[in-house]
Structures are given as C-alpha cells and as structure tokens.
Task: inverse folding
C-alpha cells in the first residue's frame, strides 16, 4: 500500500513529529512518502529513513503534481488546509484528514475556512481528531459523523534515551517548549517569569522554539530586565535534554488540539501547568500538574511555587510519569491507522 502524507509546514514540530512516528511504525509493506514545502524538515525526514517529496508551494498545483507523480493508494492529509487541497487535487483516491489542532476560526460556521472544509468533507473518507475538543468546537455535522479520536502517540523510551544527551546550559526552573506564535502565548509566559522574579530574583527560565514572535520576546526580555533570567534557546532537533533539565513546564496556550509537548514533559517526570483549553484538558490533571482557567499570571505564579514544595513535587512527578504512559501504546496507535486505511480502501472499491 502506498501512502502519501501531505503537510504544509517546512519545519519540524508537533504534527510533523506525530506523522513521522506513524511512518516509522507502519510495517514494511506500507510504502510511505512525506510531502511538504522544502526546508529544514527535509533533513529530519531523511534522518529518520523516510522518503521526502518537496512541494514547490502548499498550493493546488503543487499538490496535484505530487499526487500524479506518487500515485498513492491513500492520501493522508494533515490539518484543514492540506485536506481541502487534497480533495481538490485528486479524484478517486481515499483521503484521510488528520486534524492536529483546533484554531479559533472553526467555531465560526461562516468563516471561509470552515465553509471550505465543510465542502471538502464530502470527499473525505475519514477524519482523525487528536482530541474531542476539535470535534466539539467545529461548526458542521459532517465532521462529527466522519470523525474518530486517536490521541497523539509519544515514544517514551525514545524520549528518555534522547534526554540524556550532554547539553550545556540545559538546567532551568521552568520552561516553555513550542513555536513562538500567538497560539502558544510565549509573551504571557514572559510575564509569568517577570512576576516570579519579584519573589525569586535568581529565577532561571528558558523558551525552546522559534517563530514570528522572537523579536517581541527579545524586546520584552530587554525592557523588563530579564536578560539574566530568561533565555531564548531557539529550535533544537533534540529538545529533550532541556526538558529534562527543567523543574516545571508551563503551557499557557490560547488553544491546543492536543498538547504533545505536555505529554513529553510528563514522560520526563516534569509537572505541567497549563491553560484549561482544548486537548490539554484530556492530558493534565491534579495528579501531574494543574489546569488553570483564563490567563491570570498571578495564578500561574502561585501554582508554580506550590508545585515546588518538596512533597507536592514528588507526588506530581510520579503522577506525571504514570499519566504519560496512557499515550505510549505505539502498537495500538499504528494498528488504528492501518484499520482506517484498509476500511477506506474497501469503501472506495
């Protein structure tokens, strides 16, 4: 069986990690191709032993050309836009739409993107959602009728293995890991660090990731005299030593389809403080951290100091590891997708 995976980002992050993990888990009889705009992702895909196909642009012409070249049996399109393009560029090929996120516009039935995806659903065989929040928030009954929930997978053994790499300046008191975008709310994280510093002048915090808010964050650090307290680490092919070297993870996302970094942190026994949104609600609980409603920096700061109490931290760390195991069943994960592929082919025939 030949499967074409379509993604729109040229960089490596959560959704890309999940797709590459799935490609590696599929048996040898599955011939897989990873197609996305060219960029840093090419090196990552090939380093993992997978076929990479460069899209000139994430547009209809390029997607259609790639489909004609590969001639896949199944198209596995990640997220809304690539799913829409897949339905426009192909005919007669089963399409699996894999939704990793729940952007705010899906709540608006009249938003052009919501309308476009609702039209695309007529040609989509199956929708995979990483959490119930994606289904609940989307405005359109077709998605509910065609969707199933498959939480993202985390290879905890791999994470523990990679986390022991010797990296300088990897220790910190708290961290944020993710793209520097409005969704991940990194400037609010900076505000939290600023307030913690008022009580703990030597606080050490790091942000691992890159994105369009980098300059804004650097400006915040300079203006608020946080140069010695908050470091921008940038993108790391292996972020796990930095995650292992921290005490607590903060994820103040404005929305989140799943929250892969949260599970990875839990796998390294790190408590997580997160906003009570999207898929994070299915991951974080009082056993392994805390969910916080709204964006009150003082509440995040209070929770941070509470979690650092020795007995509390010990209990949360143990709970973190146990919670992460719920997302570590690689055999079930790959089997779910193989069943979906086979069913899509049967329905097509």
Result:
């Amino acid at each position: 069986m030949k499967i074409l995976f379509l993604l729109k980002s040229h960089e490596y992050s959560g959704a890309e990690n999940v797709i590459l993990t799935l490609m590696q888990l599929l048996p040898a009889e599955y011939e897989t191709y990873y197609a996305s705009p060219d960029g840093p992702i090419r090196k990552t895909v090939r380093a993992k032993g997978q076929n990479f196909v460069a899209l000139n642009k994430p547009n209809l012409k390029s997607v259609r050309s790639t489909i004609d070249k590969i001639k896949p049996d199944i198209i596995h399109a990640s997220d809304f836009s690539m799913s829409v393009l897949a339905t426009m560029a192909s005919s007669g090929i089963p399409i699996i739409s894999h939704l990793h996120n729940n952007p705010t516009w899906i709540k608006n039935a009249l938003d052009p993107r919501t309308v476009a995806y609702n039209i695309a659903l007529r040609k989509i065989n199956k929708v995979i959602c990483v959490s119930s929040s994606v289904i609940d928030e989307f405005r359109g009954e077709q998605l509910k009728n065609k969707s199933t929930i498959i939480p993202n997978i985390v290879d905890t053994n791999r994470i523990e293995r990679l986390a022991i790499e010797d990296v300088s300046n990897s220790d910190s008191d708290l961290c944020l890991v993710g793209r520097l975008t409005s969704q991940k709310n990194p400037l609010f994280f900076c505000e939290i660090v600023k307030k913690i510093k008022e009580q703990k002048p030597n606080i050490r915090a790091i942000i691992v990731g890159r994105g369009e808010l980098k300059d804004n964050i650097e400006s915040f650090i300079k203006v608020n005299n946080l140069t010695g307290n908050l470091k921008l680490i940038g993108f790391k092919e292996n972020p796990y030593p930095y995650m292992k070297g921290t005490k607590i993870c903060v994820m103040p996302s404005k929305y989140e389809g799943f929250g892969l970094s949260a599970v990875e942190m839990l796998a390294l026994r790190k408590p997580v403080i997160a906003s009570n949104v999207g898929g994070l609600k299915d991951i974080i609980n009082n056993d392994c951290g805390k969910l916080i409603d709204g964006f009150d920096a003082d509440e995040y700061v209070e929770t941070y100091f509470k979690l650092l109490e020795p007995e509390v931290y010990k209990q949360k760390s143990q709970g973190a590891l146990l919670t992460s195991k719920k997302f570590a069943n690689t055999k079930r994960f790959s089997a779910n997708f193989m069943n979906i592929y086979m069913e899509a082919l049967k329905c097509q025939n």
Remarks:
- The chain has two domains: 2-153+329-348, 156-327.
- The longest strand covers residues 31-37.
